[in-house]
Backbone:
């Protein structure tokens, strides 16, 4: 403890890839938070881990880092070239932890690989600092929260995050803590279509009996309570109640307006669904007594804090570039750390899209003119679910503390594949039925059919849904995918060993 200082020192870590506008909003909110809750303990360090592919984005991020370095905020802009230099300096066996990276194009390695490289970079700097806390966030988040108000959603700087994290980590038993996000869901659009369709169908059916120029009646005094994971089509897989019923839509418009204006606004946001926004099911910050600390099982990779002494935990299977990396690591941490891995009520505001209902950069989602292709995202989601629930089954058998044979691991992955494939097939059938209902409404003679703006937005949304959810076959557990996942799980103990060797070699 340098100089006897009893306080924690923070280093923020923000991976970013081709998102200068969203990064700027994130940093602006950090500066506003620091003005609202001044930190009396001096300089705040920030590592900007840049995974951009576009040189213009890298230059824009560097300019942002320079502009926001004020008032005791020290920002290191860690470029893809510098990350590549770190990687190329590693011994070949340990370099394999990060997969194949093209030296000519070191950007877009993936968020998990970028975070793992950042962990190594931080090991060289902070391994000997017992009071150092490392806070990982995402570039599409803000340092504030949203609350349901009487006239709509309100955004506030309501949490003194740094004081709260410091208070939490005063408990020496805690190694890693995760907050959550509010606002836009932290999951892929590949698993949210059914819940949005249910809400949209319920709204359109209700509006059939209302005149378009009647005052908007979509402003209930209280925001609907959606519950945990209510945006997820298959919430039951995670132990939550499935969101099968339609949730009443709460119009966010202010001032006098009619039904037509409300539906125009909603239909104009529907395209943002394909970039990860859920227009009808947004979560809100609900204050609790204290931090509401409880044992965790999911790590939110966009909002977690670890001690510098906990750098031995890395994000596994990063080269596979699967979704669900945080929940998968969370299951491993829960089995290994017990009460040393906790969840607390310190969420950040998640904003997938910008004012035009588009994400600035969303790898895995292909846009061509008005069409959207989610096939790559859907495959990553299916494979991520397969990895997550295979790991969950194996942990119940004592893995990774207990060594299992490749055959034993393969059996569990096969069983998980059958279960997940069946559930995905059921969900696709439900989406097909809902799409048919939506198409029927769009072919009727309701008032929104005579509004060119609304009709065009609804038809474009319906077309992209049918293209992505009805035309391709449901994701299947192909033999190659099963083999890759089983092999990666079997290799995890060796990866842990190699990671430990790297940390010891890089310690200051």
Residues:
């Amino acid at each position: 403890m340098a100089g006897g200082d009893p306080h924690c020192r923070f280093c923020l870590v923000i991976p970013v890839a081709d998102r200068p506008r969203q990064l700027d909003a994130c940093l602006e909110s950090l500066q506003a938070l620091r003005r609202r809750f001044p930190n009396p303990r001096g300089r705040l360090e920030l590592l900007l881990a840049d995974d951009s592919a576009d040189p213009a984005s890298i230059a824009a991020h560097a300019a942002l880092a320079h502009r926001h370095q004020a008032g005791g905020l020290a920002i290191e802009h860690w470029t893809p070239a510098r990350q590549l230099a770190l990687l190329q300096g590693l011994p070949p066996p340990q370099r394999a932890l990060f997969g194949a990276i093209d030296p000519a194009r070191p950007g877009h390695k993936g968020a998990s690989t970028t975070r793992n490289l950042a962990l190594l970079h931080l090991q060289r700097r902070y391994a000997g600092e017992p009071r150092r806390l490392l806070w990982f966030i995402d570039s599409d988040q803000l340092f504030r929260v949203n609350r349901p108000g009487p006239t709509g959603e309100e955004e506030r700087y309501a949490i003194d995050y740094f004081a709260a994290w410091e208070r939490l980590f005063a408990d020496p038993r805690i190694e890693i803590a995760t907050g959550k996000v509010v606002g836009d869901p932290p999951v892929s659009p590949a698993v949210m279509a059914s819940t949005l369709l249910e809400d949209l169908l319920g709204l359109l059916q209700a509006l059939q009996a209302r005149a378009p120029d009647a005052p908007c009646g979509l402003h209930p005094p209280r925001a609907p309570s959606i519950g945990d994971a209510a945006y997820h089509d298959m919430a039951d897989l995670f132990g939550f109640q499935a969101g099968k019923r339609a949730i009443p839509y709460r119009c966010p418009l202010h001032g006098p307006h009619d039904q037509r204006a409300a539906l125009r606004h909603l239909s104009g946001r529907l395209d943002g669904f394909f970039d990860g926004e859920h227009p009808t099911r947004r979560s809100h910050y609900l204050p609790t007594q204290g931090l509401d600390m409880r044992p965790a099982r999911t790590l939110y990779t966009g909002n977690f804090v670890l001690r510098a002494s906990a750098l031995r935990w890395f994000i596994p299977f990063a080269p596979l570039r699967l979704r669900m990396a945080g929940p998968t690591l969370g299951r491993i941490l829960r089995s290994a750390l017990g009460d040393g891995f906790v969840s607390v009520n310190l969420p950040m505001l998640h904003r997938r899209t910008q004012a035009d209902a588009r994400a600035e950069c969303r790898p895995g989602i292909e846009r061509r003119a008005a069409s959207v292709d989610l096939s790559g995202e859907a495959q990553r989601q299916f494979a991520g679910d397969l990895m997550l629930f295979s790991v969950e089954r194996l942990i119940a058998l004592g893995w990774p503390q207990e060594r299992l044979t490749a055959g034993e691991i393969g059996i569990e992955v096969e069983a998980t594949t059958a279960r997940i494939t069946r559930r995905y097939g059921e969900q696709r059938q439900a989406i097909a039925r809902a799409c048919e209902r939506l198409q029927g409404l769009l072919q009727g003679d309701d008032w929104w059919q005579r509004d060119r703006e609304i009709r065009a937005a609804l038809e474009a949304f319906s077309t992209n849904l049918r293209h992505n959810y009805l035309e391709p076959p449901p994701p299947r557990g192909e033999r190659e995918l099963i083999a890759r996942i089983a092999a990666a799980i079997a290799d995890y103990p060796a990866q842990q060993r190699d990671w430990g060797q790297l940390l010891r070699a890089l310690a200051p």
Summary: Residues 184 and 278 are 6 Å apart (CA to CA).
